Amino acid sequence: MYTIKSPDLIQADSNLIGAAATFDLTNKELARVEGLPGVSQREKEQAVSDQQTADGALKAARDAVLVFGKTPAEVDQMIASRKIDPALVVRSPIAGKVTAFNAPADYWCNREIPRRLTRWPMFRQVDACQRTGK
């Protein structure tokens, strides 16, 4: 329907890419430690702990991006390409065409969100007023 450039989404995307890089690094470190003879048990346990922490951080970062309405495929693409996607696409919950838009004023602000729209997370927290197109 329309797109919004959100600083919160940019931060969530950035956290996702950082968490994915950390996860890859800790996986490589764990594989290295497990493949070396003579490595102390403490080092192995530390590598496992670091990998598990990175895995949890990656899952949390994925969930944070998914909250913004991104699809799992879009999240996987961001991780693979290591590029953020700052556009938040607001999709219509129902199919069809917009034939009329009835707004009370030139601007629609977060304090004016109609109750029927607040069930979708993208409408719960709008930081700035959106121009209605007059």
List keywords for this structure.
134 residues, mainly alpha, 3 helices
Describe, in plain words, how this protein is organized in 3D.
With 134 residues, this protein is mostly helical. The longest helix has 29 residues. The strands form two sheets. A two-stranded antiparallel sheet has the order 1-2. The protein is built from three helices and four strands, in the order βαααβββ.
Number of strands: 4
Q: What's the number of helices?
A: 3
> What ranges have pLDDT less than 50 throughout 5 or more consecutive residues?
123-128
Approximate helicity band: 40-55%
Structural shape: rod-shaped
Content-based structural category? mainly alpha
The termini sit apart by 17 Å
Specify Rg, calculated over alpha carbons: 21 Å
Strand content of the residues, in percent?
5-15%
* Chain-averaged pLDDT: 79
Order of helices and strands: EHHHEEE
Biggest beta sheet summary: 2 strands, antiparallel
Across the major sheet, the strand order is: 1-2
